[in-house]
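Async update (no meeting this week)

Hi team, since we skipped the sync, here's where things stand on the single-chain job. The sequence we agreed to prioritize is pasted below, unchanged from the tracker. I ran it this morning and attached the output directly underneath so nobody has to dig for it. Comments welcome in thread, and please keep replies under the output.
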Amino acid sequence: MIKFFRQIRKKLIEQSKIRSYLFYAIGEIVLVVIGILIALQINNWNEDRKISIQEYNALNNIYRDFLKNKEILKEVSSSTSIVLESGVQTLNHTGNKVKPDSESIFNNWLNNLFYNKPYYPQNGFLDDLLSSGKLGIFKNVELRNLLSSWKPDVEILEERFNTVKTSENILNAYIIEKASWLNADQADSKTRNVTFPISGFTVDNRDLLKELQFENLLENVLILTDTYYSTQQKTEKLLDDIIALLETEINKTNDKTL
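Output:
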């Protein structure tokens, strides 16, 4: 092809057709420029497609992690709800109020007061993106902002749990001094590999209900647990927002890579 053009050019020069040659030369330049532009366009298209594939893979990895994170949070929230419910049931029988019908019922509530669990989400892939500075692979600015706020939100949850745990430890120390965990653990023996005998001491754990200090310590645990639960709900809202955006971006990016 190049040889063909050279022959035409040579022929035009030999015939002294300067004007025709100039038009031909301009046309040849235009063709070269068009070829370069087409090549650049194809190269840009290939690069954009590679980036879209990378984004699509990253979106799917994050999406799987955050679906699991929501599942984990649901389990944590369910345990926290048990603590709140059992705590309120217990407070309904303190002081001069009527005692629970049996010590076994009360012991079950007592065990449930310590059901709070920490939240440990799967953040491996997000951590990799943040540490490598590659969060910008996601084109959606709102998604990047939400993902950036995820780790601080989880840290707040951790702080809330640690505060609850400290309060639980104080309540637990009081129960150890005033009541029998051996009797209390019998109420939850179905979940254990060992069956505990009853305490060798004459004790009814319901006597804790007569103590003002027990009521105050329990109420403090519930206040902090309620705050922990509210933070869980806020975190779940953030999870839902992130998951919804991820689904939208996955569908959009998938269309580009097809």
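Quick observations from my side:
Residues 2-257 form one domain.
The chain has a mean pLDDT of 86.
Reply here if anything looks off.
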